[in-house]
Amino acid sequence: MQYPRIIQGGMGVAISNWRLARTVSSLGHLGVVSGTVIDTVLARRLQCGDPGGHMRRAMAHFPWPDMVQRIIDRYFVRGGKADDKPFKSVPMFALQSKRELLELTVVANFVEVFLAREGHSGPVGINLLQKVEVPTLPSLYGAMLAGAAYVLMGAGIPREIPGVLDALARGDEATMKYSVMGATDQDNFRLRFDPKAFAPGPLPIVERPQFLAIIASTTLGASLMKRATGRIDGFVIEAPSAGGHNAPPRGRLQLSDAGEPLYGPKDEVDLARIADLGRPFWLAGSRARPEALRDALRRGATGVQVGTSFALCRDSGMDPKVRAKIMNGLRTGEVTVKTDPLASPTGFPFKVVEHLEGTIADQDTYEKRNRVCDLGYLRSAYKKDDGTVGQRCPAEPQKHFVKKGGEVEATEGRKCLCNALMANIGLGQSRSSGYVEQALVTCGDDLTTGVARLVRKFGEGYGAQDVIADLMEPVRAAERKARIPVTPLIVPA
Fold first, then answer.
1. pLDDT in tens, 77-110
2. What is the separation, in whole angstroms, between the first and last Cα of the chain?
3. In what order do the strands lie in the sheet with 380-383?
4. Rg (Cα) of the chain, in Å, rounded?
5. What is the pTM of this model?
6. Distance between CA atoms of 148 and 169, rounded to whole angstroms?
7. Domains, in order of start, for the chain
8. From CA 85, how far away is CA 49, in angstroms rounded?
């Protein structure tokens, strides 16, 4: 099959939204929507009045109208809620999640993929985080109902996802291990989703998407090829310069003078060994340069995955006010990107854009926020004394975390990514106290180089089309040159 040269990264919470993915896919590459927290995103878009009617238009194509109507009845606010009124909360996920949450999750992923596919014939992918386990099964099924052609997953070891895709494509129950701290070999905590038990009518025929595992080591790639529960269709090789969550350095954690994890030769991926696995692969991390695409192709890769340049383009889901702050910081040279080993509750290093006023990367802004955990996507499961499963997050109030058996030291420096990433897209929660959740922006290391270069070339309002044109220009020139027949030069005698 023909694979895309460029994969648009599945970034954050709805930064890689349906508009961005649709634009990229319509241009002949792979547009990717982010499925992370998309159930809450849909609920809040509906409470904002569904501007343009896009959510309800897509929902009208969902196969089970009664399910859609329940969601509209619960969340839609005609004309939109008042700005200072809090969003209605969505139930939090658990080992046994509420039926209404499963319905919302399936529909939300369907909507995002449906809209991204609308109006063109190109493939669309969806990105999910292995670390955010509980929503995974209903998220995948919703995306498959809408015809997602690719699933991309990292931030963990997605060993069971290929088998999950196989089961869902057959209409069978899908299960996957639920990571529970303190569990023993005698425990068998598993997440389950059965389309037949969930759906009120006959199941539509769905196709299995291609599965691309996002990895940061040769060893993990080889392990997945041997131990995955189904077919691995390709790999995205992500360097530590990529935005969002990074794989931790191999070996003992060492920090630079700036407090960033130090990566070394052990963290470099042997691309020759990756190629020997016999699957297509794409390189990610500071790849938004024409020479980087040429280099990737020369080294045997199928292409590149690009995130930050797309995240800052006008087609992404980033709040225009947040984007304007970043652009201003690029003009003044003030913004920097730090790999923060503490910010994410997951324990993975997390890229943070610093020196942005009004974001919780700023210490004063961070300290003004009262800790609250009311979204809970990054909570970790643990086995309680009575054998049941509880959940805790080091970014929640310290006393709650400690009461659940956590160590207070683990809460130091932790930031509530769930609420902050919702603020990045203009859907931050307004608290009854008057406090409004503030943003926390993540970008790759090439923010101050790659994005700055695109701004100089196309202006601050550059779009996804400009990113692709910039990357592909020399490749297309070389392809055109290769197709031009050369007439031999005849020198007169």
1. 999 999 999 999 999 998 889 999 999 999 999 9
2. 51
3. 180-181, 380-383, 389-392
4. 23
5. 0.93
6. 12
7. 6-319+466-483 (3.20.20)
8. 13
